[in-house]
Write a structure and sequence with these properties.
- With 227 residues, the chain is mainly alpha-helical.
- The protein has one domain.
- Helices cover 73% and strands 6% of the residues.
- It has a two-stranded antiparallel sheet.
- β1 and β2 form a beta hairpin.
């Protein structure tokens, strides 16, 4: 499995990065439209308030970016990507204010390297917990949505501070690839998170449809301008 996944990811690396770059604008436009369209819903406010709160706390409390929990979340996401692509973890080390490291058996791939900069690990795990409410056909309670907002806010802010030119993961994955891939895929992910708050797991399909529609419309407009 490891060799297959590494080979597959090698061949789709730049096609997927180019797709992300080309469709960043229509995805961003679709996300903004969706947020404004649903902003007045009460559940969205319960989601947004904790996100803003986390951003404020991160700005006024020094050292959060180098906290052990932040580093663990980063390395844990590397580990999940490694497991999903058939790589056996070897070790993980956490050094507050200095960083961390994660090692695994095998050659590795760009997904392992770049995963922490777009995949919302802890929000996703919290979403899995939300399956309990879906199974019982219950709406998400306010405490669940607010906790989700805290985790999403943490994901957004941690990413913001970890994305910089000196980031060794970007050098390993390739700066050109990183610049093309990261912005578009993050917009796509945020759309999924917002849609989940509004409509649960069914909301993911709604955002997927809106995102695809926006990208297809954009592609058609661009093609129509070609003489």
């Amino acid at each position: 499995m490891q060799n297959f996944m590494n080979t597959l990811l090698k061949y789709i690396k730049y096609p997927i990065a180019l797709t992300s770059a080309v469709f960043f604008y229509p995805l961003f436009q679709a996300l903004v439209q969706m947020i404004f369209k649903t902003f007045s819903q009460e559940i969205a406010l319960y989601f947004l308030a904790p996100i803003i709160g986390v951003m404020i706390l991160w700005a006024i409390i020094p050292g959060l970016n180098g906290a052990a929990w932040t580093i663990f979340a980063h390395e844990f996401t590397h580990m999940l990507a490694a497991l999903l692509t058939g790589h056996k973890p070897k070790s993980m080390s956490i050094h507050p204010d200095k960083g961390g490291s994660f090692t695994y058996q095998g050659k590795g791939n760009w997904l392992i390297t770049i995963a922490p900069y777009f995949f919302p690990t802890f929000p996703f795990l919290w979403m899995l917990g939300g399956l309990w409410f879906s199974y019982h056909n219950q709406a998400f309670p306010n405490w669940y949505v607010m906790t989700f907002g805290v985790l999403v806010g943490y994901h957004i802010v941690a990413n913001f501070y970890q994305i910089h030119a000196e980031q060794t993961d970007f050098k390993k994955a390739g700066y050109f690839f990183t610049v093309m891939f990261i912005p578009g895929v993050n917009v796509l992910i945020i759309g999924y998170l917002w849609s989940f708050v509004l409509n649960g797991w069914a909301g993911l399909a709604t955002w997927q449809k809106e995102a695809v529609t926006a990208c297809v419309r954009f592609a058609q407009e661009m093609l129509s301008k070609i003489p």
